[in-house]
Write a structure and sequence with these properties.
single chain; alpha/beta; seven-stranded mixed β-sheet; 39% helix; disordered N terminus
Length: 398
C-alpha cells in the first residue's frame, strides 16, 4: 500500500520539489532542507528544487498560502516535477487541497518516512509494525481517495453517494485490519518479553545501541560482534532489531548487545507506537551506547533529538556511554584531544565519552574496555580523565 503514488521503482527516481515552512517557533528548523533531501533520496526520489516559506501560522486551506502555492506550482511545471514533499506534517484537508492546486501528488514528512520504512522492513515483525503505522496514517486521509465520487448522489432513500459509501467500506476494512495487526504485534511483544526474560536469567548485561539514523550504529554493531548485519551510508538502512552475544575476554562475563532502529527529528508518533516492541529493547537495556555522528553538521540537534526520544520512551535515566563515531572522517583540526573522557548530559548526569571509528577500528579498544568494566559492574567514570578542552563540536546540547 504505497502512500506516495508517484513512487514507481521501475520508472526510475521521481522528480520532486522540497518545501519547508519556518513558523519562527522551531529553533531546529532546517533551512537547508538537507535532511528532507536525504529522506527523499532514500525513498528513491530526486530533489529538483527547494522552497523555503516563512509564515506566522499555517494557512488552514493550503498550509503555505495561495501565493507561495502558485510559486511552487510554477517550479513543478518548470522542472517537470512529479511530486511535492513537505518537511512538516500536513492535515488531510491541506494535503488534498495542495494536490488539487499543484496538480501532482503531495506528501509530508510523516508519509515519506512511512514510505521508507515500508521499503526497508524485512522481518515479519517489522512489516507488521510498518503496515500498522501506514494504516493509521491512511485512515485520516480516505477523503482524498474518493473525491471524484463526492458529487454523485444516491437515488431516493439512499444515505449518500458512491464516495461516501466507499469511504465507509474502506474505513471499516482499515479498522478491522488495524485490530488484527495489534493482536499480532501483541503476540510479538510477548515473544520478545519471553526472550528478554531468558537473557536476564542468564545474567548477561543487556546493552542497546541507540542514536540518530545514519550515525553508524549497525557498522559499530558489526565491528563489536562480527555479526555481519546489513549496514549502509543512508537513512534507516536497518529497521529490525538484531541481538548478539559479545565476548570481552577471559574472566569478563559475556554481554548481550542489541542494535535498534535509528531516531530522527519529528519521528512520527505513529511510528513510535508501532515500533514499541522494537524500542522495548532499549527500554529493557541496562546500558545504552548512544552513538553520535561526529562528522554531522547537525550534531547538536541530533544529540538533543535522541535525548528527547529516550525521555519519551522512558529510558532517559538508563546509564549511558556516549560514543562519537566516524572520527576518521574529521579533518585534523577537529580531531578530539582525548580519545576517552566524560561529559555531562543535558539532564546533568555524567557519562563516559569515547571517540571511535567503526569503519577503521580506531578507538574500539577503549569502548571494549568500558563495556568490560560495565559487565564486571565496575564504575565507568572514576578511572576516566576529566574532559579536556574539546573543540565546541563535541560539547553537549543545551
Amino acid at each position: 500500500m504505497a502512500l506516495n503514488p508517484h513512487l514507481d521503482p521501475a520508472a526510475g527516481p521521481a522528480r520532486v520539489v522540497l518545501v519547508g515552512v519556518d513558523f519562527g517557533r522551531d529553533p531546529d528548523f532546517d533551512d537547508s532542507l538537507d535532511e528532507l533531501a536525504l529522506l527523499a533520496s532514500t525513498a528513491g526520489d530526486e530533489a529538483v528544487a527547494r522552497v523555503i516559506a516563512r509564515r506566522k501560522a499555517p494557512d488552514a486551506a493550503l498550509f503555505i498560502g495561495s501565493g507561495k502555492a502558485d510559486e511552487i506550482k510554477a517550479l513543478v511545471l518548470g522542472h517537470e516535477a512529479e511530486a511535492v514533499l513537505f518537511d512538516q506534517a500536513l492535515s488531510p484537508v491541506q494535503q488534498r487541497n495542495l494536490e488539487v492546486h499543484l496538480g501532482v501528488p503531495v506528501s509530508d514528512r510523516t508519509g515519506l518516512i512511512l514510505e521508507i520504512f515500508a521499503q526497508r522492513a524485512r522481518s515479519h515483525e517489522g512489516k507488521l509494525q510498518v503496515e500498522l503505522a501506514q494504516l493509521q496514517y491512511l485512515a485520516t486521509r480516505l477523503v482524498r481517495r474518493w473525491s471524484h465520487l463526492e458529487r454523485q448522489r444516491g437515488g431516493i432513500g439512499t444515505r449518500g453517494g458512491p464516495g461516501e459509501r466507499q469511504m465507509e467500506l474502506d474505513r471499516r476494512m482499515i479498522e478491522q485490519r488495524i485490530k488484527q495487526l495489534k493482536i499480532k504485534l501483541h503476540k510479538v511483544e510477548r515473544q520478545r518479553d519471553t526472550q528478554r526474560r531468558a537473557r536476564a536469567r542468564g545474567g548477561s548485561l543487556r546493552v542497546s545501541l541507540v542514536g540518530y539514523t545514519n550515525a553508524g550504529k549497525s557498522t559499530l554493531f558489526n565491528a563489536l560482534t562480527k555479526a555481519g548485519s546489513y549496514a549502509a551510508d543512508q537513512l534507516f538502512a536497518t529497521l529490525d532489531t538484531t541481538t548478539r552475544g559479545m565476548y570481552l575476554g577471559e574472566g569478563v562475563p559475556q554481554l548481550v548487545l542489541s542494535d535498534t532502529v535509528g531516531f530522527i527529528r519529528d519521528l512520527p508518533h505513529k511510528l513510535v507506537d508501532a515500533f514499541k516492541a522494537t524500542l522495548q529493547e532499549a527500554s529493557e537495556a541496562q546500558l545504552l551506547l548512544h552513538v553520535i555522528d561526529a562528522n554531522s553538521p547537525k550534531l547538536h540537534e541530533q544529540w538533543a533529538e535522541v535525548e528527547r526520544v529516550l525521555e519519551e520512551i522512558g529510558v532517559d535515566e538508563t546509564p549511558q556511554v556516549v560514543v562519537f563515531n566516524k572520527i576518521d572522517a574529521l579533518p585534523a583540526h577537529q580531531q578530539p584531544r582525548s580519545a576517552l573522557d566524560w561529559v555531562e548530559r543535558p539532564n546533568g548526569t555524567r557519562v563516559a565519552r569515547v571517540f571511535v571509528s567503526a569503519h577503521s577500528g580506531e578507538g574500539l579498544a577503549n569502548l571494549r574496555q568500558l563495556l568490560a568494566r560495565a559487565a564486571l559492574d565496575e564504575p565507568l567514570i572514576p578511572d576516566v580523565p576529566p574532559p579536556s578542552a574539546q573543540p565546541d563540536l563535541f560539547a553537549p546540547p543545551h
